[in-house]
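Table 4 source record.
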Amino acid sequence: MSRAWVFLGSGLALVAAVTVLFFAPITTRWTERVTIETISPVARAWGGAKAKWDDFRQSLRQFDVLEEENRNLRAENVRLQTEIRQLDYLRNENERFREMLAFRDQQSFRLLACRVIERDTSNWWNSVLVDRGWSDDPHLAPDQPVVTPRGVVGKTGTVGRSTTRVMLISDENCKVSVLTEGAGARGILLGDTPVNGGSPLCRLTFVTREAKFGVGERVLTTGLGGTFPPNLLVGTVTEAPALTSEKNSGLYREGQVAPASDLNDLREMFILTGASGAKK
């Protein structure tokens, strides 16, 4: 390498050194100012975006927590509603049992408690099957009264070893000799199958034209016929047409009776198996 190039390089190095020595603070400040002015908007934008992202992530975490709490609350609500329904069922069942026990203690008949275990939807108002048969009580037989504490339900039909078919008073083949409590009008009660799923009613028939009875009178058994003992509540008169009506233009008067027992919700009942003082 020539000596001239060496001197040139040395001179340039010296100039650079002097420039740095005397102008470095000014250059650094200018560079710093330019850098800050250039980067500050970007830094602010980045900081704002990062803050929003952090807020969004925090919101997601809070949403997950709230969603979990919501699921837990819904599950707790379902559990509490189930418990309430169970408590309502147990309370109603307890009230029914208390009513049945009180009824049993007031009767002089031999009573056999039974529970409905089957009901045919095609013959809903005709009969039910109960969980008692001749193996449970040797006195159990066909044509025995079946009652609840509210009133007469029907009578026993076919008796099996462990089950019995009960014919309801809403069946037109079930006939009961009755009288009205107020006027003492006597007649025969027949089942009258409801139309279009309505409530079951019974017809009070073969009442003499001279007899008088009115709406609201209770209807009781007369004890005639050998099946039902006297003074069992059957229902209440809901319709008593006048003698001039079309229904009462013949030899006898007719009326309509609502059963005292809820035939749509039969659960526990009693079968009257005899008039003995011993109770079942």
